[in-house]
Automatic annotation (TrEMBL):
UniProt protein name: Protein TolB
Protein's organism: Desulfuromonas versatilis
Major subcellular site: periplasm
Domain TolB N-terminal intervals: 22-129
Matching Pfam families: PD40, TolB_N
Length: 430
């Protein structure tokens, strides 16, 4: 079932270099670039309109989510949109400038049996030059991966940082009647069930390399911690101590895991090895301590505790001790996640009987509300580039997985219909 996740793409051609300062974008809302996205054309006689259509849909969704572009209306395209234009001298830049485009994506494809070759190019219309280009070779089933990978390259070329589109999101769904672990693309396509525990599965987390997931399951009639290899499907129960074995999160090194255990009666934070052995205890308090997450350097831990009354977010040194309170407002603050750049922590807070998402700097300053509107927004997780936040919400009735830009703009549902979906976790590059 999981063989399709084995990397199968061959990147055999890289063209162009970093973008010049004439096109410079950094964050949604600061500046948007008029982008023309043309339909990919067949390189030979084997035209497959459905292939061109799916490439275009993937790229358009990714570019729109970024918030960095406004797409030129294809209805306005002129003759150059129907010409290949895989090298600069074959592109009519004057025509695109007349339409107001500053950037241009053109591409082509060819088929040899079930092998797909995809040629993709990004042009700087203003300066009439190629910014970047790649040839992707793989199976027809890899089409969406190729398109997501080129979308990542577009963002890298224009901003200096690759996008997070060629990644995966793990989540929990009760579509089968049980809460099981699933995996899907960032835009919600290709959902695949990973567990068949026929029990309650919760709190997935990817290893830093993206090869494994840990999660809690009641399969053994106790909330135990499991580790699963994604490619092979191999699975092992690594912590089944009496009481809670919940909220496991990988250390950035991938060699250790923070875990909430209640084996001695009270919920405390521990550091365990990937084999489940306890390395050391992180907290020793009368209060309930849960949901530990690591700073990107692995030198600090944010967690939830009611040691000063209502549940709030606290930060402590990874070695234990030197605990300080991060949040002060709200009656219930929970499920923090530290951004991959280290500059902000996202968490959910109950206000007026409803959870919404907030971000705050690790020093406690500059708190910002990210989500608004009806329904609860919970379990936030950063994308690997820190541009977006995935979360679960019941704003439309059933719980579903959503993505929002880090500034709170552009929220959209991504999980497929059927069942309640929650507890997202975002992988590194796939």
């Amino acid at each position: 079932m999981l063989r399709k996740f084995i990397p199968a793409l061959l990147f055999v051609l890289l063209l162009g270099g970093p973008a010049l300062a004439q096109i410079e974008i950094r964050a949604p809302g600061q500046q948007t670039i008029p982008l023309a996205l043309t339909e990919f054309l067949p390189l030979d006689q084997g035209a497959r309109p459905e292939i061109a259509r799916e490439i275009n849909e993937v790229l358009a969704w990714d570019m729109d989510l970024s918030g960095l572009f406004n797409l030129v209306d294809p209805a306005a395209f002129l003759g150059d949109a129907k010409r290949l234009g895989l090298i600069s001298i074959d592109v009519d830049f004057g025509e695109w400038r007349m339409l107001g485009a500053q950037s241009l994506i053109k591409g082509a494809y060819s088929l040899r049996g079930d092998e797909l070759v995809l040629e993709a190019r990004l042009y700087d219309v203003v300066n009439r030059r190629l910014l970047t280009g790649r040839r992707y070779v793989g199976k027809v089933d890899d089409l969406r991966r190729m398109a997501h990978a080129f979308a990542d390259l577009v963002l890298q070329s224009l901003t200096g940082e690759a996008g997070p589109f060629n990644t995966r999101i793990a989540y929990i769904s009760n579509k089968t009647g049980f809460k099981e672990l699933y995996l899907m693309e960032v835009d919600g396509h290709d959902p695949i069930r990973l567990t068949d525990h026929r029990a309650i599965v919760l709190n997935p987390d990817f290893s830093p390399q993206g090869k494994e997931l840990i999660f809690t399951s009641y399969r053994g009639r106790n909330p135990d911690l499991y580790r699963k290899e994604i490619y092979s499907g191999s699975e092992a129960r690594i912590s089944n101590r009496p009481g809670l074995n919940v909220s496991g999160r990988y250390h950035p090194s991938g060699q250790e895991i923070s875990l909430t255990l209640s084996k001695d009666g009270n919920s405390e934070l521990y550091l365990i090895g990937t084999d489940g052995s306890i390395r050391r205890r992180l907290t020793d308090q009368w209060a309930i301590d849960v949901d530990a997450v690591w700073s990107p350097k692995g030198d600090q831990v944010a967690f939830v505790s009611d040691r000063q009354g209502n549940p709030h977010i606290f930060i402590m040194d990874a070695a234990g001790g030197s605990v300080r309170r991060l949040t002060s407002a709200g009656k219930y603050n929970s499920t923090p996640d530290w951004s991959p750049k280290g500059d902000r922590i996202v968490f959910s807070r109950m206000e007026g009987g409803r959870f919404d998402l907030y971000t705050i700097r690790p020093d406690g300053s500059d708190e910002r509300r990210v989500t608004f509107g009806p329904g609860n927004k919970e379990h936030p997780r950063w994308s690997p580039d820190g541009r977006f936040i995935a979360y679960s919400s019941d704003e439309a009735g059933k719980k579903a997985i959503y993505i929002v830009r880090a500034d709170g703009s552009g929220p959209r549902r991504i999980s497929p219909a059927g069942g309640d979906c929650q507890h997202p976790a975002w992988s590194s590059q796939w």
